[in-house]
Amino acid sequence: MREIKTGRVYRHFKGDYYLVEATGLYSETGEEVVIYRRLYEDGGLWVRPLKMFLEEVDREKYPDCTQKYRFELVEIESKARH
Known about the structure:
mainly beta, SH3 type barrels, 5-stranded antiparallel sheet
């Protein structure tokens, strides 16, 4: 199973970028969730079930999608090379 890396940037299959801030548990059910911040507009904070965050894109609904998973880790190189 894939795992979440906190403090890292992920690309949503529709193209926008998000920073994973943390993971947690939903108090009512104990379900694992991902807390992430969008890296555009107001930088809003969002929560999504971990299972949904890690799932594959629905190919029936989005047949032209080039990304395999709903969110994929993005490797960002340092320009300063530090």
